[in-house]
UniProtKB/TrEMBL annotation:
<dbReference type="GO" id="GO:0016020">
    <property type="term" value="C:membrane"/>
</dbReference>
<keyword id="KW-0472">Membrane</keyword>
<dbReference type="GO" id="GO:0016717">
    <property type="term" value="F:oxidoreductase activity, acting on paired donors, with oxidation of a pair of donors resulting in the reduction of molecular oxygen to two molecules of water"/>
</dbReference>
<feature type="domain" description="Fatty acid desaturase">
    <location>
        <begin position="64"/>
        <end position="330"/>
    </location>
</feature>
<dbReference type="Pfam" id="PF00487">
    <property type="entry name" value="FA_desaturase"/>
</dbReference>
<dbReference type="InterPro" id="IPR005804">
    <property type="entry name" value="FA_desaturase_dom"/>
</dbReference>
<dbReference type="GO" id="GO:0006629">
    <property type="term" value="P:lipid metabolic process"/>
</dbReference>
<feature type="transmembrane region" description="Helical">
    <location>
        <begin position="55"/>
        <end position="78"/>
    </location>
</feature>
<dbReference type="InterPro" id="IPR012171">
    <property type="entry name" value="Fatty_acid_desaturase"/>
</dbReference>
<keyword id="KW-0812">Transmembrane</keyword>
<keyword id="KW-1133">Transmembrane helix</keyword>
<protein>
    <recommendedName>
        <fullName>Fatty acid desaturase domain-containing protein</fullName>
    </recommendedName>
</protein>
Amino acid sequence: MTDKVRFDTDTYARFAAELDAVRRAAFADVGERDARHIRRMRGIAQGTAIAGRGLLMFGFGPVSWIAGVLGLALAKILENMEIGHNVMHGQYDWMNDPSLSSQTYEWDIVCDGEHWRHSHNVEHHDHTNILGKDHDFGYGMLRMSEQQKWSPASLLQPLWYLLLALNFQWGVAVHDIKIGRFLKGRMKRAEFGERMRPFLRKAGRQLFKDYVLFPALAFWQWPRVLLGNLVANGLRNLWTNAIIFCGHLTEHAQTYTRREVENETRGQWYLRQIQGSSNLEGGRLFHLLTGHLSHQIEHHLFPDLPAPRYAEIAPQVRDICARYGVHYNTGGFLRQYAGVMARLFRHAWPTQPRLATAG
């Protein structure tokens, strides 16, 4: 793992000023091109969903079933990653389109939008990789740092990870309910009930749509449709889990303690976002399928910038990092995901904290 970089006060200020300049220039160019992109992505997602569901409902034989599953999975991935995630970050609020409002958008997933806006936009992005505050770091199930307490249950965390990956939308959905706090007696039953209600409503609608309504509309084809929807959701879960875990849990992604971020300046916040994030390299289609979270570094620096802009500003961010001696964590998907798995298996054992050194 690379060591953390620390600057003096003046260097932090210059570092922040350079990144602020990148932000201003990028936002100054936002406009119709970005509006066309998100509308086109929404049209593609809707079209592939119709095609996928049509092949499942009216097709015959394994080829049309596989094509239907892949079409529906693609639609769900695009809707969740490139559309839902980015819209709910406020990247398209400037369009004043009610259907693309960050405050009211509901995505095709069992997680309630309001729950996600809090657990992700606030808890995760404000407290990126701060142990005990960023609950996305390990999702309350996995030990991914020497500074996290080890228990014998950690030995089974490769199994916990597999279960989480297969059911990832459910893991995301219960994230903001804080079930652990309730089970430990740190949350009253009334508050727990309030947190559960939006989840139950949203999950009920999603389950009814995928596993009751559409299978029923297919009449005698209902087993084919039900299984196809289940597999499409599973493929979406596995893909989104892999991409998201590559964002902050690779070998070189840094973690922070609460003490380290006390009285954090803007320059220190920028530096933490870079050192706690990881990028993925690939082509344009790959970036679209990741919702441009393949540029996790740029996304964490400027989460409300329309996501296709990340690839454009990445060379500038990388150049700034090089000049200030900051490691820019990037690599191919297989290499970065292998790093996640290595970290997962290593910390299943009672590893000891290492001494941090300044870069």
